[in-house]
Amino acid sequence: MSTIKYSVLDLAPVLEGGTPSESLANSRDLAKHVEKLGYTRYWLAEHHNMPGIASSATSIVISDIARATNTIRVGSGGIMLPNHSSLVIAEQFGTLETLYPGRIDLGLGRAPGTDQLTAAALRRTRRTDAEDFPQQVEELRTYFDPSRSEQPLPVRAVPGEGLNIPIWLLGSSGYSAQLAGQLGLPFSFASHFSPDNTLPAIDLYHRSFKPSDVLKEPYVMVGVNIIAGETDEEGQYLASSLYQTFLGMMRNKRGKMLPPIENMDEVWTPIEKQLLQQQLGSSIIGGPETVKEKLEIFLGETGANEIIVNGQIYDHDKRKASYQHVADVMKEINA
């Protein structure tokens, strides 16, 4: 078995009682921590109109994280491309790659990363036609590599043009899986909130894959929630913050990340519990031995080349410890 890489997905959670400034400071500290632990990349997610997420200006946060670290790759997981012009993203990531050469990843998604009203405020239109996404991706790639166009480009991305910035397609369904395969690009699947679609999407990606100048063989990274405590009981306790976050979204009550609680049954209804456990069904929660056992099964089922770990934990020190446990487990698995 080839070595399986492991990376970090950070939503820069804003804690109840905390501020976005503290959240971004925590992200810098976590990035420095996981860089020492051997993580491959540190990605930040674009979300909007969410009081509990501080990474809405994703490109700016990427720059801050890259400046605070030395070797770890830093990027987007992802940039929601329909929210932006392809030229703006080419310029932003061209600038990032110019500032931090050889360390920037550009992960692209086609969802709004928010509600429809906020999407309209971002885009100045309510039009959210996903069918435009392939054209946007091609336009973006052409700004980086004008030779893809048969005609000279009337508009050029500076910085950006001529730079080799890895582009990934992200998805929670088969749409981006198939497109990534057809384009011969690496694919990252959001199993951390869409577990039921994981295996079908990965299979579709493999079946659709066509070798390209970027990749000769398929490359799959899978997002997974992992919350590792010192014991199974602590892991389940820490995970209650993640459950409360998703419960708030289910109830259309977005807020900051809440501290953990002892008994979720006092908070959710039986139906909400069932729905959330289904949505978060691929989550790996527990002590180190449980995490190792479940992660080995997960890797075997998905055949992932890489995992990207979302560790939504309220206590920052416990969050750092969880990523330490995951790194230790991955080193054992790769041994």
UniProtKB/TrEMBL annotation:
<dbReference type="InterPro" id="IPR011251">
    <property type="entry name" value="Luciferase-like_dom"/>
</dbReference>
<protein>
    <submittedName>
        <fullName>LLM class flavin-dependent oxidoreductase</fullName>
    </submittedName>
</protein>
<dbReference type="InterPro" id="IPR050766">
    <property type="entry name" value="Bact_Lucif_Oxidored"/>
</dbReference>
<comment type="similarity">
    <text>To bacterial alkanal monooxygenase alpha and beta chains.</text>
</comment>
<dbReference type="InterPro" id="IPR036661">
    <property type="entry name" value="Luciferase-like_sf"/>
</dbReference>
<feature type="domain" description="Luciferase-like">
    <location>
        <begin position="14"/>
        <end position="304"/>
    </location>
</feature>
<dbReference type="Pfam" id="PF00296">
    <property type="entry name" value="Bac_luciferase"/>
</dbReference>
<dbReference type="InterPro" id="IPR019949">
    <property type="entry name" value="CmoO-like"/>
</dbReference>
